[in-house]
Each structure stands twice: as C-alpha cells, then as structure tokens.
Write a structure and sequence with these properties.
It is a single chain. The protein has 93 residues and is mostly helical. It has one domain. Helix content is 67%, strand content 4%. The longest helix has 23 residues. 8% of the residues are buried.
Amino acid sequence: MDLSWMAWTWPTAAFFAFIALSIMTLGIWEYFSPGGNPRDGIFLINTTRGDRLFISLLGSAFIFLGWLGLMNAELYWPLIIAIFWSVFVFRYV
C-alpha cells in the first residue's frame, strides 16, 4: 500500500493513532456498558458518549484552526484550551 501521498510525520501519526485509540476505547466501553447514558446537556441536545467525543474533536479542530489562522504561534495554548473544551463537553454537554 503506497502512503507516500501524505506527509507521515510523527505528529501526524500520533494524531491518527489518538483518534483510533479514542474510538476503540469508546467501543470497548460501549460493549461493557451499553447505552452510553444519553443525556440532555446545556446545549439542550440528547447526546451519548460517542456524540460527545465527536463534538469535542470537532471543537478542538476549530480551536486549532482558529489559533493558527489568527495567532500563528506555538500550539501549546490551543492544546490547553482544547483539553479544557473536551472536559467541558464530556462533563456538561
């Protein structure tokens, strides 16, 4: 399989490995505890664990893209903001 079309750097591989690991972890969690405890959060939408993972990943992507577009600085601050965003989503959404 030829994957030379993509720049596979260590950060790129770590990113995709993290996404795959997150999805596998949620799959195993769902196997042992079915249902995902759907709940209505502050956004007033019914979400499960998978929905909250998707919302946190999508929001994190926008945080990083916005930071790169507006600040063009190191990515430590958006990483911290994205972690807080993910904790917020899993806790309150």
